[in-house]
Design brief:
alpha/beta; Rossmann fold; globular; binds nicotinamide-adenine-dinucleotide; binds zinc ion
């Protein structure tokens, strides 16, 4: 089979590999829709998680089950599935403690395109299929459903972790697909006022569609100053960080008021340390907490997110600005994600509508 891979830091290309073997609880899946992630860009071009050799990329997929192990109960060949980006080892200490994305160490639930071949292959392996796959609801548009495995689960987690009070104010810093999903999450959680911090017109349009009430351009002046001024000198109840470099945490904390949670979902690809503003953080005593998280995977999470889409609570397809057809297009889609033209939110590859 072929796959599109990270050949080494800074280099991608097509590779030929054997089809993966599966164990008794696992599944072999073929992709029907795929999307590249900004995390793949950090991984390849910043070498952010270290060197990798010929590792197939991609962790956002819908698929069709090709084969299942003898102990798999709820899935069979031919079933269409949502494949979460994060596929934890559920029988583990971290999962039992409630942190399933961190099984086997920090970020250990993130296997695809981190330390295992990802979903940009003609076939890919899914561990513990009954717990790590969800059935794809019939008739759900693929461009919408393919946002569930990572964009929705990550962005919504950003909003959940930021503890937005009902009617409270939230600022989302960075409005690519992850931040836009956080805006939709904030809206679903009952935020009163939602600041979207970003500039690209297409992203701003979707931010408004997802519930943003105020648009702040970080190019028009200091982000935190603008938010603090707009809130009568107070700052916001919650902040979600979904873009920018290390200095974004300075904006985030300076925009937060006492009791706020700064919820980071950004992947910091470079640098050894991250700056925190000493005064803005009340010299360390401001009652401003910082939350972090890797997006939740697992079957129940996927089923719940699918219900949000199925019952029309938000439409993730608005983010699918560039839709490609055919497996070979994953290369073009990934390079588009790297180059980020101004009209891009998220590229999607429909591998085969008829599978
Ligand atoms: P993106 O690049 O499309 O969006 C980020 C946006 O932030 C861009 O539009 C950029 O212009 C903007 N930005 C840059 N500097 C800024 C500033 N100072 N203030 C405000 N905005 C600024 O990326 P994305 O695909 O939306 O992903 C966002 C981040 O989330 C990436 O780092 C990605 O790797 C990470 N991620 C994390 C998880 C997780 O589980 N925590 C999952 C998926 C992606
Ligand atoms: Zn991702």
């Amino acid at each position: 089979m072929k796959g599109f891979a990270m050949k080494k830091i800074g280099e991608v290309g097509w590779v030929e590999k054997d089809k993966p073997d599966i164990g008794a609880y696992d599944a072999l899946v073929r992709p029907i829709a795929l999307a590249p992630c900004t995390s793949d860009i950090h991984t390849v071009w910043e070498g952010a998680v270290g060197e990798r050799t010929d590792m197939i990329l991609g962790h956002e997929a819908l698929g069709v089950v090709d084969e299942v192990g003898s102990e798999v109960k709820d899935f069979k060949p031919g079933d269409k599935v949502i494949v979460p980006a994060i596929t934890p080892d559920w029988y583990s200490d971290a999962a039992l403690r409630g942190f399933s994305s961190q099984t086997g160490g920090a970020l250990g639930g993130w296997k695809f395109s981190n330390f295992k071949d990802g979903v940009f292959g003609e076939y890919f392996h899914v561990n513990v299929a009954d717990w790590n796959l969800a059935h794809l609801p019939e008739g759900m548009p693929l461009e919408a459903a393919v946002m569930i495995p990572d964009m929705l689960t990550t962005g919504f987690m950003g909003a959940e972790n930021s503890n937005i009070p009902l009617g409270g104010s939230v600022a989302v810093l960075g409005i690519g697909p992850v931040g836009l999903s956080a805006i939709a999450g904030a809206e679903l959680q009952g935020a009163g006022r939602i600041f979207a911090v970003g500039t690209r017109p297409k992203c701003v349009e979707v931010a408004k569609a997802y519930g943003a009430t105020d648009i702040v351009s970080y190019k028009d002046g200091n982000t935190a100053d603008q938010i603090v001024e707009a809130t009568g000198g107070e700052g916001v109840d919650s902040v979600v960080v979904a873009g920018g470099g290390p200095d974004i945490l300075i904006d985030a904390i300076n925009a937060a008021r006492a009791g706020s949670v700064v919820s980071n979902i950004n992947y910091f690809g470079t640098g050894d340390t991250l700056p925190i503003p000493r005064e803005g953080w009340g010299v360390g005593m401001a009652d401003i907490n910082i939350a972090t998280g890797l997006c939740p995977g697992g079957r129940v999470r996927m089923e719940r997110l699918a219900d949000i889409v199925k019952y029309g609570r938000m439409d993730p397809a608005l983010m699918a600005t560039h839709v490609f057809h055919g497996f070979d297009k994953v290369e073009e889609a990934l390079m588009l994600m790297k180059d980020k033209p101004r009209d891009l939110i998220k590229p999607v590859v429909i591998v085969d509508e008829n599978l």
